[in-house]
Prior knowledge:
The complex is a heterodimer.
Chain A: H1 6-24, H2 29-48, H3 53-67, H4 69-83
Helix pairs in contact in A: 1-4, 2-3
Chain B: E1 7-10, E2 18-20, H1 21-40, H2 50-66, H3 74-93, H4 107-129, H5 131-136, H6 146-181, H7 187-218
Antiparallel strand pairs in B: 1-2
Helix pairs in contact in B: 1-3, 2-3, 3-7, 4-6, 4-7, 6-7
Amino acid sequence: MIEFTPEVANTVITTASYVAAGAAMMAGMGPGIGMGFAAGKATSAVRRQPEARGPIITTMLLGQVISASTGIYSLVIAIFLIYGI
Amino acid sequence: MNPGPQIQFYLFGNELFPITDTLIVGWVSVIIILLGAKYLTSQLSIRPNGKQNIAEFMIELIYQQIEPMLPGEGWRFLPFIATIFIYIGVGNLIGVVPGVTSPTGDLNTTLGLALVVFIVVQYEGMREYGVWGYIKGFAEPVIFLLPINVIGELAKPISHSFRLFGNIVGGGIIITLIYQAAPALIPVPLHAWFGVFVGAIQALIFGMVAIAYISVAKS
């Protein structure tokens, strides 16, 4: 069994946490797709009913905010990985 | 490059009370809001003049966001929601000034605001259904969902605070990187986007989500 010195082990852990932070931010794809989908649907809804523009935009923003939560959680994990080590 | 708040000095020379740059900018934005409110409401009259029109326009704009989601209670929640809107709006927009850090780019500020919203949401839920009735609401429709509902409730202030914090800090990091690569002219449209547009949208969203959480707790 190979014994690592503490310096080597720390370097490996730091490198791995940076790589993992980058990988965690790949979760940004999902909210991006979802929010764009919601915006597209809202655009067609405004096109169908231009007089309901205000409520449609409010509803769209609220839905986008809730679906953006997953991206926020990945950001939290990435920040913990970078600054928490 | 540490994007977090930088400690400027210690209050009373005591290490227990660090004063960060975001805290100082937060105080400055509070003073700006106070002076602005004093100025806009200095000459109130039945027939509004220019300054009073601006104040009434802002208040009615915020009122129109609250009233559809909390019917009949717009005026009751107006002071709380308007405080959130105006403080976060000023705090985000003050970051456009070069060299000034937004107070909302600090997790302490956003988590404090989100915890205040969280407490108000719990209070309103208990006021609507009674303490026991509100707690019992977490165990519906079946008792097995109790842990999931509690975790979902506790995740609200976390996502609420990190949303604002992440947007402001992310924009700040991108602008800092661009400044190191191209210090002249190129960062200007980025300031317009991340500072003005994202700042205004995030202030609106923080207040809207607070209204939505209160409305969910009461329904």
